[in-house]
Amino acid sequence: MVNRYIRTLLQEYLDLFPAVGIVGPRQVGKTTLVQNLTLEKERIYLDLEKSSDRAKLSDPELFLRAHVDKTVILDEIQMMPELFAELRSLIDEKRETGRFILLGSASPELIRKSADSLAGRIGYLELTPFHLGETEYDELDRLWIRGGFPLSYLAGSERSSRLWRENFIKTYIERDLGLLGLNTDPYLVERFWRMLAHAQGGLLVSENFAKALGISRPTVNKYLEFLHGSFMVRLLQPYFPNVKKRLVASPKVYIRDSGILHSLTGIDAYEDLINQLLVGNSWEGFVIEQICNVLGDEYEYYFYRTHQGAECDLLLLRSGKVKYAIEIKNTLSPKISKGFRISKDDLDAEKGVIICHVKGSYPLEDSIIASGLWEFVEKLRKS
């Protein structure tokens, strides 16, 4: 068992909210996490993908009232979204913490329905694939190439890891997206997903994808909505400070899990990755995902780019102030670019950081340091 990062916070949520929702992509370990929790009450677990368990809820009020003294765990809750209204009534009758745990492969529809029905009654947590806070220092390259999905990261060989990811992609396209509500041509979705992978770290221009796929821009945006809503894709938004410069307005798009990215682009091993043109964009996306996953809601995350050439890969904001301006480089010998220095000055950032393949950290000039990813994340996590 890997000690999951959100475990302590999950216990706090169970002591605070009548219902706790744990959302995240399929196969990320939500069920395993909950099954290994220490709960004050007896638990009852229902997997709503199983017809036998759905049948038990043919009369949900009758069933749930019979187990009012237990913690009821409802897995894959998006299969029966009509339960939200029933849960609201039961919670309002007996507002007791830790009554329900809802697990879901989140979608925009799932979030909307639960927000409408359980507002003020539920606390949400996202369970991500494994990240640096849950792995060993010397396993960074393994995490980068394999990604953080448990069965990929923990596989006994590179081949087993690759086969798992290839099967995950196939199943996700052919089955899971349909269960989440995207009923469309799987072939087009696969092409779109692979195109996104090859555009890793680039600006999102929906018209270009629509033209290449022979579909409409609204259809592209619909595909993107589902990939984003199910935690497969991250859209990093541009930051607009009060400066008189022409700024880029489109978000940057990333495949969130680096292992899935590598499978989508045909990269099988670390030796293949380091010889690919994609390696820099892969490293950039990996670094951003690790920082966002470990630090969570402690910061807001943006990028900065002007049409004059100033650029910053990642900004960490707190209370409206740019705390860190970050440039991400796949190098052992980092140098400060002119565009990064201009960006830091434009934004009046407190600190500048170049995250690269070094151990420890050291100053490059006043208020700008070079740092390894692990060291940077650990420093902010403990601060």
Task: Describe the protein in words.
- This protein has 383 residues and is an alpha/beta fold.
- It has 2 domains: 7-126, 3-Layer(aba) Sandwich (Rossmann fold); 132-382, Arc Repressor Mutant, subunit A (Orthogonal Bundle), CATH 1.10.10.
- It is built from 17 helices and 13 strands.
- It has helices at 7-14, 30-35, 51-56, 60-66, 83-93, 108-118, 140-146, 150-153, 158-180, 186-198, 206-213, 217-229, 258-264, 270-273, 279-295, 338-347, 373-382, and strands spanning 19-23, 43-47, 71-75, 100-104, 122-126, 233-236, 252-255, 300-305, 311-318, 321-328, 351-356, 361-365, 368-372.
- It has a 6-stranded mixed sheet with strand order 8-9-10-11-13-12. Strands 2-3-4-1-5 form a 5-stranded parallel sheet.
- Helix 7 (140-146) crosses helix 13 and helix 15 (279-295) packs parallel to helix 17 (373-382).
Summarize the structure.
The protein has 383 residues and is an alpha/beta fold. 43% of the residues lie in helices and 19% in strands.
